Amino acid sequence: MPEPLPTQAPDKQGHRFVERLDFLETSGALDQLTELRKESRELDTLINDAAGLFALTEVPEMLSFVTSRLLDRFIPVHLVFLIDPPDGGDIEQYSYHNLKADDTPFPTRYFRSFRDFFAHTPYSRPFAAFEEKFGPEHFGNDIRGYAPDHIFPMIGIGGLFGVVILGTKMVGGEYSSLERMYADRLLRFLSIALQNRIHRERSITDPKTGLYNHGYFLRRLEEEISRIGRGRSSSAIIMLDVDHFKSFNDTWGHLAGDDVLIGIAGVLKKAVRGEDVASRFGGEEFCILLVDCGVPKILEVAERIRLGIEAMAITAKHDVLKVTASFGCCPLDLYSGCDAQGFIERADQALYRS
Questions:
Q1: What is the pLDDT of residues 147-169, one digit of tens each?
Q2: How far apart are alpha carbons 278 and 238 in whole angstroms?
Q3: Which of 186, 160, 155, 212 is nearest to 74 (CA)?
Q4: What three-state secondary structure class fits 293?
Q5: Short-list 324, 195, 220, CA closest to 272
Q6: Which residues pair with 97 in a beta bridge?
Q7: DSSP state letter for 272
Q8: What is the pTM assigned to this prediction?
């Protein structure tokens, strides 16, 4: 019969390890460590998401990107973005309901209340905090139908320029602290990205008409001349001037004159494609760069714009007024040896003859 194996002495180091592990569990430190690891992973993800967000240039792309990232973590019943444009126009809104884009108008009359609130507390707050400040009766069923849970501010150099309304979760109960942290920080990055987009837009657009400005047009014209010099495509310039505009302003006032400029800008925006460049060149003069456009198409576009301007109706002092415009067109013929300024001068000469 084999002899019994000797009993192994207890490992004191192993006992101490177990005791310390028990202490960490009972004290809650182990749970805190687990939470810190989760938060660290969320921050790594957030940094990657921020990099992806800053690579985008258009507002709808930014909002779609942010929405997709939020939906990876939770599904709100409603998600609404309200953006107050710097030119003082109507508040832009982008809404999502049950994961789908929703065109239902959001009650933007509450935007002023959000602005007043965030002027003193520039941090995201639960909707209950707004009810406490303004009173439950301040908010009607039109906003309660969105089941708002948290309101996030979008703040830039000039103060609040937008808010994000996050509705309650479809499943999973209340938002966790990690979910709120991720949403809050991602939406702060969105604020910065939108501010960059707004500043860029203001630097290249004419504030009165919303068209591109003189400097941006020249830059794009030079780029287009370089591009067609490397290939066989053709492009063109259309220059137009409002007839007798000084006399119109003297007779009917500058506000009516502004309405003319804004109306013409609307005609140009409808007449050109996304790759074309419609600009206010100065005063009552406008210039359009048509990309990949032959001579017949140039004349077709110019005539379409001329008829659109002729159809405009401007109301001033209870009178309905009409205006006309003259046009000059110039294909970008590189064999002419012209540079950007030379092509503009040729279009201007054609305009003068018109």
A1: 999 999 998 877 889 999 999 99
A2: 9
A3: 186
A4: coil
A5: 220
A6: 78, 100
A7: S
A8: 0.63
